Amino acid sequence: MILKARKIPIKVGQKYILVLNERTAHMLDVHAGDRLAVQNGSKRITCIVDVTENGEIKDNEAGLYVETWNVLKADHGDKMFVTLAEKPAANMYIRQKLDGKELSRAEIDTIVKDIVTDTLSDVEMTYFVSACYINGLSDRETTDLTKSIVEHGNRIKLNKKIVADKHCIGGVPGNRTTMVVIPIIAAAGITIPKTSSRAITSPSGTADTMEVMCNVTNNAAKLRKILDKVGAFISWGGGVDLAAADDKLIRVRHPMSLDPKGMMLASIMAKKYAVGSTHVLIDIPYGPQVKTQTLEQANALKKDFERLGRMLGMTVKVIATRGDAPIGRGIGPVLEAIDVMDVLANKPSAPQDLRKKAIFMAGELLELCGKSKKGAGAILAEKLLNSGAAYKKMNDIIDAQGRKKMPKVGKFTFKILAEKSGTIVGVDNKLVSHVARVAGAPKNSGAGVTIEKNLGDKVKKGDLLYIIYAENKNRLSNAVEESRAKVYIIK
């Protein structure tokens, strides 16, 4: 069938979508979600069909969103040849996984390729995630998925015997240890490329916090130059497209909080594999309000990470840490950046819990890389911190990535006071994060919360517990309203 091109001036992301009215869709015998092969001159792509009832798209017209319009190099009224397209081969393999079949490397590779090329719809990707959630992934499938994710994205190839990396599986507000550990390790002379994520449900991801001080969107070539110059970077993984399939899978996993173990392992390890990491430290916080709730679960996950590391040819060490309460004082991009730089500058006001955990983690990684003897890593890490070498290295990294003037902390504040005396025996991590997000973090980089009292502290009625920061009065008012629920349990 010949259809006339009509531009819909809306961007919808990378998916190629073609909109038909109901009559034209009926003539073609297609429904929403079906695929059509569309040819305009020499340009030919496969589009996912959407169907409208509003009458804007006329009979024998095809509405094209901006991305589809551009790739087809269309002009208004162009006559395009449209035919029914076959469903992707990946769909058959996804159905097989739903039935409990173990997929081959080639089948997994087909699925990943179709994800990267935007051949699969969000619904189809969600079915793949669901199949992995219901039936799990074997060790071999997890390894194959990791390798496929890497092979269908960019890579940074380093000809070095030791390339270090670290990762935390998340869930603890603050906990910005990465930004302290990386400069310590780099100051010891170890190459450590770090790709980090932006916030999805938290008040700030490492990339969001780093971004208030410097550029974090860098391509692979620039990151390689930064590594050659200063030996480290802390950059947004999505900006370099190192694991494109993983970023798309994370997006469809989020609404239902589906986190299949094998997929989560592949997600984390693919990013390490893509930058050539040889020695990796994984932090698994455990506690009632984080992803891993017990030490037993953390230890089981530890074995999975270490086993996958061996299958990928990496040396992996996993540590289980308590995740009962926020770490650091600031929660929100600017507030967290202040904490990090205070720790690196050895300021007396720096949060000591963040400093202590970062020294411990850096020490473990120094030992793993053979830079210090067993049991002496933390001593070396603290020496590199106290001497100012780590602080200098962090400034070198910031300059190499492109220093920016840090935004100010939100000027509208509200203090939350203790309603009674006693000891803080519990902190609601999720509610702390929620309050910071309602205040505007991470979009409003100066918004968030500062923790003034933490788990185990003794307080008197009227003592300051935490301060909310916002960049406008409405955000502050909403955050204060959310704070009526109890963040702290005082007994």
Structural descriptors:
Barwin-like endoglucanases; 491 residues; 4-stranded antiparallel sheet
Q: Could you describe the 3D structure shown?
A:
This protein is α/β, with parallel strands linked by helices and 491 residues long. The protein has four domains: 83 residues, Barwin-like endoglucanases (Beta Barrel), CATH 2.40.40.20; 48 residues, Up-down Bundle (Transferase, Pyrimidine Nucleoside Phosphorylase, Chain A, domain 3), CATH 1.20.970; 209 residues, Nucleoside phosphorylase/phosphoribosyltransferase catalytic domain (Pyrimidine Nucleoside Phosphorylase, Chain A, domain 2, 3-Layer(aba) Sandwich), CATH 3.40.1030.10; 79 residues, Aldehyde Oxidoreductase, domain 3. It has 19 helices and 18 strands. The strands form five sheets. The chain has a six-stranded mixed β-barrel. A four-stranded antiparallel β-sheet has the order 12-15-17-13. β3 and β4 form a beta hairpin. α4 packs parallel to α6. It is globular and about 75 Å long.
